[in-house]
Design brief:
The complex is a heterodimer.
Chain A (H helix, E strand, L loop, with lengths): L1 H10 L1 H4 L4 H24 L6 H20 L3 H19 L7 H31 L3 H6 L8 E2 L3 H18 L7 H8 L2 H27 E2 L2 H23 L4 H21 L3 H32 L15 H14 L6 H14 L6 H27 L5 H8 L8 H19 L6 H4 L16 H21 L6 E3 L23 H4 L2 H11 L5 H19 L4 H19 L1
Parallel strand pairs in A: 1-2
Helix pairs in contact in A: 3-4, 3-10, 3-13, 3-18, 4-5, 4-10, 5-6, 6-8, 6-9, 8-10, 9-12, 10-12, 10-13, 11-12, 11-16, 12-13, 12-15, 12-16, 13-14, 13-15, 13-18, 14-16, 14-18, 15-16, 15-18
Chain B lengths: L1 H31 L9 H11 L3 E3 L4 H27 L8 H7 L2 H12 L3 H31 L6 H6 L10 H17 L11 H4 L9 H27 L8 H22 L5 H24 L3
Helix pairs in contact in B: 1-3, 1-10, 1-11, 2-10, 3-5, 3-10, 5-6, 6-8, 6-12, 8-10, 8-11, 8-12, 10-11
Classes of the chains: A mainly alpha, B mainly alpha.
Chain lengths: 567, 304
């Protein structure tokens, strides 16, 4: 069967693969990330065992993602989608931390379970639309132009199945929990390539295609999407605030940002959807930049524990600058690219006409402030602030001050894109790029002339610089920091690492309890489901205890049941 | 043309009005404390004096970040002030809208935080972290309160639409508008880091906090930035709740009254309250203030 399919595909590629503007754009970005990740890996993955396998898996991941993007029917999509889940598992396993095997397993199980849901959704869609055309129809069911109304139970379940698969891939709640773990335990380039960029592109691409091409959305379903998006934004960023590990913190942001994309697509109007899709591209740029820069800092410091870093700006200034730009972009500071897409999403929310739009808008805007807060903590704990004992040794070593070229190139390219796309956002023709996903033209009710605004900010910088010149900058003198008369070097306990900056928030009334539950992993679907299955296991192990009399009891019970049934 | 607006209004006019506002604030404070208070030009003289002092950079700090932080902050204020001036008086639909204004207004806080972090001083780090916590605390009620005029203007986020919608009657005349204005003034108090929310600076415990290591021109720019904010934020409130600065006929008097009124309220609050702790501030903004702001939003949605 599958052999015939391959022959068919070779004979008639159009029946199996097709492209549209959105998938072409996604593929262009996937290619960019693939190239940058390979360049970065040259230094980062050097000397690891079986590194050639790593490159093969990376290439296979890239090819599979192209397969998903250009799939013209559901079967092809499912095959490549499943392949990606497996490759994710194999790639995570290259990590060298203690939790790596468990993390890889967790990712495989969450992504694999939602693959099953995806299959289930496809079968349901086939049942709804072409149930009579037989199995052949299932294999040739095109993705476009269905417009199934979300009126019956079957279609709603089918939509939720597709959405779950998309959420698990992109990392939206409640299927997000593999993302922070992966961020912590997988090698940096893997995290930057899969959960940070490629999986976002694919997950949100699937969500957009399914939402806009396959089903006809109802206001209720839009509200559900917006609710999931808002909860994801705020809950994930609140978790990010209190993390102690550099890459785990970034991982929670990779979850939080998905919320904006889901929110944008959930608005159901062209401007919101354009914003959501635009945010998807922006996010993959700055988040992979953050992971790569964070990975470089972690490699330099020899640890990802925020309490043992600090002051790294002196050792790796270039990494600091790119990290700062990317963190301003993710926090939505104008004129970076993150602001441009968030701005579109907010307008989509305001004009959505949903009765709870204020709630979604507030969640999104507050999420942005909280994002800034957690990135300020990171910047202090990693790059600025007072260096830890370990970092002091690194700073004393003159040799360690160079950033490798293969590390620098991806960082510079990505951070330049952050600024460039933000500044020229007003030139981007969303209407043409995201067709046919957008049903109408994108006309925004608000105003954001990013070019002029950038010129204004630059003019402001010049004015500030002139004030400096009017003063006495040349006479600058370097003295020890003033700590109430003490010497900082003699008092290592005076060091503020920044890890506990948001302890105040953590211990605030209601939040205290929620945080405690979250730390017990009560909101982790994987752990909760695991505990439930373990409960069954205890039940079965109670039955199978190896004692003959107990087995004899089961035998009698079974016989009685049989007799009752038969008689 | 943009640069003329920026230089003349965004920078010069805002700076002068900001310095005058800061003089009003200091004079009223002095009178409350039975002192004479500074002469009219004192805020300006202070800035010039600071420009003449030497620049001191803490040892081991990130020099470039430390020195560039004030410049980033002042460029943010200049941009947002230009945005308000031009949308109000010259061309409607200039550069940005309500969302852009709120985001640009966060840049000064961001610059203070970055500057404090870069100065490699534990006290400055503490001050900056408090500033950050203060930002996330007041941002929630501030956005809610600022949303009330947007709802009242029929969901338009253009500043000119918000101003024009108040031609018949200002939003502060509605119940929702008054409630939102109260919340917004409290948030402005925190945005300016004035007592009782001067927690990031708290001279008596962390010796000036984020600004501790700044001296000379760097401190002058930060000072100027704060003074400019002292004008820009009340200006924003007047746009949102009083239909902007109206300079025709008797309205001039009203505008001046509104402006001085807001400044006076802020000054009186700062002179009659002790400093609160940061957790108390977070509780205050996420508790009562947010409830009040939510009530205002609900009333506004009902059309009151």
């Amino acid at each position: 069967m599958s052999f015939n399919l391959i022959i068919d595909a070779l004979k008639n590629p159009n029946g199996f693969f097709a492209s549209n503007p959105l998938s072409l754009l996604c593929a262009a970005f996937a290619t960019l990330f693939f190239v940058l990740i390979v360049v970065y890996s040259l230094k980062h993955m050097k000397g690891r065992k079986g590194v050639w396998r790593y490159y093969i898996y990376t290439i296979a991941t890239y090819v599979s993602s192209l397969g998903v993007l250009f799939a013209a029917n559901f079967l092809i999509l499912l095959i490549f989608w499943g392949l990606l889940g497996l490759l994710l598992y194999l790639l995570i396993a290259f990590g060298r931390k203690e939790g790596t095997p468990a993390t890889a397993r967790k990712a495989l199980i969450i992504v694999g379970a939602t693959d099953v849901l995806l299959l289930f959704g496809i079968v349901l869609v086939w049942k709804i639309t072409a149930g009579s055309s037989g199995l052949q129809g299932l294999f040739h069911m095109p993705i476009t132009g269905m417009g199934i109304p979300l009126s019956g139970t079957a279609s709603i379940i089918a939509y939720l199945c597709f959405a779950s698969a998309a959420f698990a891939k992109a990392g939206a709640m409640p299927f997000h929990t593999w993302v922070p773990d992966t961020a912590e335990n997988a090698p940096t380039p893997v995290t930057a390539f899969l959960p940070a960029s490629l999986d976002k592109l694919l997950g949100i691409y699937l969500l957009a295609r399914v939402t806009l091409d396959v089903f006809q959305m109802t206001p209720t379903m839009n509200t559900i999407l917006m609710a999931i998006g808002s909860i994801t934004i705020v809950a994930a960023v609140m978790m990010a605030l209190i993390q102690h590990d550099l890459k785990r913190l970034l991982g929670y942001h990779a979850v939080s940002q998905v919320g904006y994309m889901v929110l944008g697509i959930g608005t159901g109007n062209p401007i919101g959807i354009a914003g959501g899709l635009f945010h998807m591209f922006n996010h993959s740029i700055y988040k992979s930049c953050l992971f790569l820069a964070g990975g470089a800092a972690e490699r330099k410091a020899g640890t990802g524990n925020l309490a043992q870093m600090g002051g790294l700006v002196k050792a790796i200034p270039l990494v600091f600058v790119t990290f700062l730009i990317a963190s301003l972009a993710i926090s939505g500071v104008p004129p970076m690219n993150g602001f441009a897409s968030k701005w579109l999403i907010y307008q989509g929310v305001i004009t959505s006409g949903d009765s709870l739009w204020v709630l979604w808008l507030i969640a999104a805007m507050l999420g942005s402030a909280l994002t800034l807060a957690s990135f300020m903590k990171l910047i202090h704990a990693v790059f600025l602030g007072q260096p830890s004992e370990g970092v002091k040794k690194i700073l004393a070593d003159k040799k360690g001050k160079r950033t490798a070229l293969s590390t620098a190139i991806p960082l510079v390219v990505l951070s330049t894109l952050c600024v460039g796309i933000g500044v020229f956002a007003w030139k981007i023709p969303f209407g043409q790029l995201f067709r046919p996903e957008l049903s109408g033209p994108v006309d925004s009710p608000g105003i954001w002339q990013s070019g002029t605004a950038t010129l204004m900010l630059i003019a402001g910088l010049v004015i500030g610089y002139l004030i400096y010149l009017a003063g006495t900058l040349k006479k600058a003198r370097v003295v020890a920091p003033f700590v109430g008369g003490e010497t900082l070097e003699d008092n290592p306990d005076m060091r503020v690492s920044g890890v506990n900056f948001y302890m105040t928030i953590k211990e605030l009334g209601l939040l205290k309890g929620i945080y405690r539950w979250a730390e017990k992993k009560l909101f982790d679907l994987y752990v909760v489901a695991g505990k439930i299955f373990a409960g069954f296991g205890i039940l079965f192990s109670f039955m199978h205890n190896g004692i003959l009399s107990r087995y004899f009891l089961w035998f009698i019970v079974g016989l009685v049941v049989l007799c009752i049934v038969l008689i | 043309m943009t640069f003329v607006y920026l230089l003349v209004f965004g920078f010069a006019a805002t700076a002068v009005l900001g310095l005058i506002t800061s003089w009003i604030d200091r004079k009223v404070t002095a009178r409350v404390q039975y002192r004479v208070g500074p002469p009219f030009l004192q805020p300006f003289i202070d800035i010039v004096k600071l420009l003449g002092k030497e620049t001191v950079i803490p040892e081991g700090a990130s020099k470039v970040t430390f020195l560039i932080a004030p410049v980033i902050g002042i460029s943010g204020v200049i941009a947002v002030a230009t945005l308000f001036w031009v949308n109000q008086f010259f061309s409607e639909g200039f550069v940005g809208d309500w969302i852009v204004a709120i985001y640009l207004l966060a840049i000064p806080s961001l610059s203070i935080i970055l500057g404090g972090f870069a100065s490699r001083n534990p006290l400055a780090s503490l001050g900056s972290s408090r500033e950050m916590k203060l930002v996330i605390a007041y941002e929630l009620p501030f956005i809610l309160a600022a949303l009330v005029p947007v709802i009242a203007a029929g969901g338009s986020i253009r500043l000119s639409d918000i101003i024009n919608a108040q031609a018949g009657g200002v939003f502060a005349g509605n119940i929702s508008g008054i409630l939102a204005l109260i919340v917004a003034i409290m948030c402005v108090q925190a945005k300016l880091a004035l007592v009782p929310f001067d927690i990031p600076e708290a001279e008596t415990e962390i010796v000036g906090g984020a600004l501790l290591e700044y001296s000379g021109p760097g401190l002058a720019i930060f000072r100027l930035m704060k003074n400019m904010l002292f004008f820009t934020l009340p200006f924003f409130l007047i746009i949102l709740f009083f239909g902007g600065l109206r300079l025709n006929g008797i309205n001039i008097l009203w505008t001046i009254l509104e402006y001085v009124g807001i400044v006076a309220i802020i000054t009186v609050i700062r002179n009659t309250n002790p400093r609160v702790r940061i957790d108390q501030a977070v509780r205050f903004f996420w508790g009562p203030m947010t409830l009040l702001a939510v009530a205002a939003v609900v009333l506004a949605l009902k059309g009151l």
